[in-house]
Amino acid sequence: MKRRFSRRRISPQETTVAAILAALIFLVAFNLRPALTSVGPLLPRIGADLAVNEGVLGLLGALPLLAFATVSPFVHYPARRFGLERTLLVALFLLAVGILIRSFAGTAGLWIGTIVIGSAIAVGNVVVPTIVKRDYPRHISLATGIYSACIAVTASTASAIAVPTSLGWGWRGALALWAVPAVLVAMLWIARARTDVPLAAPSNTNLHARGNVWTQGMAWLVAAFMGLQSLTFYFMITWLPTIETANGVPPAQAGFHLFLYQIVGIVAGLAIPRLMRRPDSQVAAAVTVTVPTLVGVAGFLLLPELGVVWAIVMGLGSGASLVVALTLMSLRGRTQHETTQLSGMAQSVGYLLAAGGPAVAGILAEATGAWHAPLIMLGVFGTLQLIVAIFVGRPPRP
Q1: What CATH number has the domain spanning 17-204+213-392?
Q2: Residues 197-235 pLDDT 10s
Q3: Looking at residue 197, what is its pLDDT?
Q4: Is 340 in contact with 76 (CB distance < 8 Å)?
Q5: What is the SS3 assignment for 35?
Q6: What b-and-e string marks burial along 30-50, b requiring 16 or more CB atoms within 10 Å of the CB?
Q7: Least packed by Cβ within 10 Å: which of 11, 226, 254, 322?
Q8: Which sequence spans correspond to the domains of the chain?
């Protein structure tokens, strides 16, 4: 006698819930930059309030990147032990706590909170690309573009409203504002961490990588590209308003230029996957996203009165560069576990390189009394990124 087995149909409500839970990863992305990009426009006020110079303020801008570099290589341990979703949930709550400490715990809290913020964001930076690869394996570059666009939306918004908000709430209140969305998304993320929907289930599978990523040449190229494009981004979000102000631009307008720098990256980030459709080579995309940095630096040096134009040009390259860097991490990782390791390694090395940008730029500006030397430095690193782009975009050897 044959037994008849019936397969339970998935209801439209269950499908909708699964889609919403999967899409929550993009809400997480909204919280991975505002706590950092809201600082740059307020640096003059913070410096005046705390009586510190450009070199110290540059260190404040570099501190989150140093936290990225320190924490990133170790993220795959809790992710493998507790699952990707639970690890990310803790990071979101830590981010909110760090923002509040930085805002209201005095001068010491400014530094301690910044370290906590950087550590929490580092977890998100490593875990999110792995979740994107797992949940959207056939649309990695497109999903990464959307994820990067979400980052750019709130990152640019935070820069634009920092100065206006500080007029009513002070710089501490303006920075504390970004604890609210972190808590809200964390509350929503609890549902995803608990659900048994396959897309959202914590990943406990231990897919061993074939080899140590720290010994792979391609991994080092990915790390170099990640670091060089990050150096440009954090140089700009830290110092663009100050550079513009030195050129006679009002602070609020300079903050708006930083907003434009980041917002145009959304369009570029969503468009660049068209150049990454070939599964074997991403040279065209990696080179294309690097050239605007060199054009923008030359523009700031030769025609600084057109600063808003060069900010937009550099923003196009910066937004697309992040998509290329994150996509390379997913494409070059052969398993979920190796992708997490590669993401951690590339972001550790990359952000360690990037951390020197804001700090060294501040020291050079203080030593020379102008911003020409820091911009020339940025141009040199942009040239190095162009060279790396040619090699990192080539298909890896079997």
Answers
A1: 1.20.1250.20
A2: 333 333 443 334 445 777 777 788 888 998 899 899 888
A3: 38
A4: yes
A5: helix
A6: bbbbbbbbbbbbbbbbbbeee
A7: 11
A8: 17-204+213-392
